[in-house]
Amino acid sequence: MKINVIIIDKKGKDKLYAGLIEHYIKIAKPFAKVEVIELFDKEIAKAHDISSQAAQRSYTKALEKYLKSGVNIALDPSSKEVDSHDFAKLLKDSVTVNFFIGGAYGFERGFLRQCNNAVSFGKITLSHKLVKVVLLEQIFRGLTINNNHPYHK
To answer: What is the pLDDT at residue 13?
Structure first.
């Protein structure tokens, strides 16, 4: 199984969360190959200065190429909240799963419609770097649930 976490975020020297991100990617290896793909370019930066709609359009443009294969799931705060067992079901029996974390202005509705699913981790707002860690932990938890590993208990 291959799981991609595709995020609109500047590639940074994020020392605070880097160890946790590496940890979850490493411990998930027996179950899946997990990769984090961070996207941020001049177009996105310029769009942020124009408007929220322009920013959302730039996110869609950057992310669309990753929609071509696998199951596509967007993290969207206005979508259905899922618990860990529901989240695990999203991973079950899939060869490739792509998770999308939008930029500061979220996703265009059109992008969300192109995804197979959209889920929420709750109504609170988290930084991109923190939601990346939470997502990776839930991916690992979901994989352990699906593989009857004791981590999730």
So the answer is: 64
Give one word for 137, left, alpha or beta, with left for phi > 0 and alpha for psi -120 to 50: alpha
Would you say 136 and 5 are in contact if contact means Cβ atoms under 8 Å apart? yes
* Contacts of 56-59 spanning 24+ positions with Cβ under 8 A: 56/102, 56/103, 56/105, 56/106, 56/107, 56/108, 56/111, 57/108, 58/103, 59/8, 59/102, 59/103, 59/105, 59/107, 59/108, 59/111
- Categorize the per-residue pLDDT at 47 as very low, low, confident or very high, splitting at 50, 70 and 90: very high
For residues 24 and 137, the answer to whether their CB atoms sit within 8 Å is yes
Provide the token pair at 133: 């860690």
> For the chain, what's the residue count?
153
How far is Cα 23 from Cα 119, in angstroms, rounded to an integer?
Answer: 24
